[in-house]
Amino acid sequence: MTREDFITHVEREQEALRSFLFALCCGDKDEADDLAQDTLVKAYLSSAGYQDKGKFRSWLFKIAHNTFLNHKASQKTMESIDDERIRALPQRGSGEGAGYYEDLYLALSTLPPKERSAITLFYLTGYSIKEIAQITDTSEDAVKKQLSRGRDKLRISLRIEN
Fold first, then answer.
1. What is the mean pLDDT of residues 14-39?
2. In this structure, is residue 150 part of a structural domain?
């Protein structure tokens, strides 16, 4: 892939990449921007290996997903969630406006990174289970389990009835 081709692809996919990482980072714009920058550097450095077999977006999201997982694994201490804020989730709005997204990102932040990735890719970016399996280098059954567990945990965190 030439430098110009890479730039063209990135310009087309940059907003989707930022949205994906913003959701994975549970609304932390600075962290998402840092990860997006790391992702684009890694993608550029390995762009010679991109063979245009599939979608550039899927390839880029795979790099972003791995960058996110590596970032989380390298953090010495996982951020703890304030129990009071989790208990306050049902009292903060009915799902409208900024409060809803704050609640959603807070609930997403309680999920393990792989479940958070599966939920984000499936519900917020619209990827199929097969595509998620390819992006995350896992089986379709594993993705289904991650989605199921993630939904169950979000249902409890957000106090959503079946």
1. 91
2. no
Q: Quote the CA–CA distance of 6 and 115 in Å, as a whole number.
A: 30
Q: Please give the C-alpha separations between residue 21 and each of 15, 48, 71, 84, in angstroms, as whole numbers.
A: 10, 24, 12, 26
Cα 59 to Cα 122, 154, 162, distances in angstroms: 16, 28, 35
Q: Which is it for the CA torsion 146, 147, 149, 154, positive or negative?
A: positive
**What CATH number corresponds to the domain at position 30?**
1.10.1740.10
Scan for tokens 């979000």, then name that residue.
Answer: 154
Convert the pLDDT of each residue in 86-115 to its tens digit: 444 444 444 444 555 677 788 888 889 899
Domain total in the chain: 1
Taking the model in full, what pTM does it have?
Answer: 0.68
